Amino acid sequence: MKGKVLELLKQQPDYISGEEMSRQLGVTRASIWKVITKLKQEGYEIISSTKKGYKLIDIPNSVTPEEILPKLSSNIMGKVIHYEESVLSTNEVAKTLAREGAKEGTLVIAEQQTKGKGRLGRLWESPKGDGIWMSLVLRPKLLPQQVSQLTLVGGLAMCEAIKEVTGLECGIKWPNDIVVKGKKICGILTEMSAEIEQINYVILGVGVNVNTKSFSEDLPYATSLWTIAHKEYSRVEIITSFLRKFESYYNKYTAKKEFSVCLENYKNQCVTLNKKVNIHTSSGSYIAYVKDVTKSGELLIEKENGEEEIVFAGEVSVRGIYGYSDEEKE
Ligand code: ADP
């Protein structure tokens, strides 16, 4: 109902009367008025005149279903949206929904996370209204050990989406952080529930710093699109572009069940390739040269003694020699 009222307001460059809306939508004028009040509370600027009706002046930069759904061009991803102003973590909400049977493609999105999650229990800073804090419920027919590849597919889709919407040069730091000028703009956290040979559900959590103006001091390697370009970007455009691209890669990947169908595109975006990096493992760190990304999405490295080795996402952290990812050092 809220969506339909908004649609009518957006279609009409001038005033539209409450009577006209109630006629078109088949509801009472009182319920139209209630929806208008709700929209105003959400930040929509609507002026009303007793004679002429209502006129939409400005829309808030929010990520409500009413703003996302009309711009959505995917068929499954994001078709059902669970929106909240503030949550502890979108991954946690998505997990609860998945356990209750939420359909594949269900999107959980919030303006703010008060306990956003990074890998290994780390926190993800998610201030109100500035970024994209969202999680997708997936139910892929894959083996549990293939799920780390899905994270790479997510990173690929988001990297391409950011490029498409902003035109900024970003790249993937293997396996799935997106970096601009050597700093982190997006992180992805995949969590799953599985049995030995079967996945119950996967939650693909994505955090993007879009219009964030500043970060806490202990995040020297964090940046945002605003920090890079000094421009506010539409989160809705990035979200819908991501959902379209992710769906297309996801369909290709799950049909073949092989990451190699995304490999060329992934390598085109990967800034870790052909670089000297620091490989951090639980037992220490060493320097290596990155030779390739394998067809399963692992990293083929050459150690300083000339030995080649394959490293897996989840077992190691890759860092630049001088900083977080050394890309386009200024
Ligand atoms: P890692 O880069 O070590 O693999 P994660 O992808 O799990 O880490 O992300 C968590 C880490 O990212 C945190 O420990 C913190 O250093 C950093 N971080 C937290 N919030 C943000 C943010 N909004 N933007 C960029 N980096 C962040």
Structure, explained:
The chain has 9 helices and 15 strands. The protein is an alpha+beta fold and about 325 residues long. Strands 3, 4, 5, 6, 7, 8, 9 and 10 form an 8-stranded mixed beta sheet that branches. A 5-stranded antiparallel beta sheet has the order 14-13-12-11-15, with no helix packed on it. Strands 1-2 form a two-stranded antiparallel sheet. It starts with a helix and ends in a 10-residue tail after the last strand. Adenosine-5'-diphosphate (ADP) binds next to strand 5 and strand 9.
Structural category is: alpha+beta
Strand content: 25-35%
Query: What's the story with the biggest beta sheet?
Result: 8 strands, mixed
Number of helices: 9
What is the overall silhouette? elongated
Termini Cα gap: 51 Å
Q: Got a strand count?
A: 15
Ligands bound, unique: adenosine-5'-diphosphate
Order of helices and strands: HHHEEHEHEEEHEEEEHHHEEEEE
> Unreliable stretches, pLDDT < 50, 5 or more residues?
none
Radius of gyration: 22 Å
> Roughly what percent helix?
25-40%
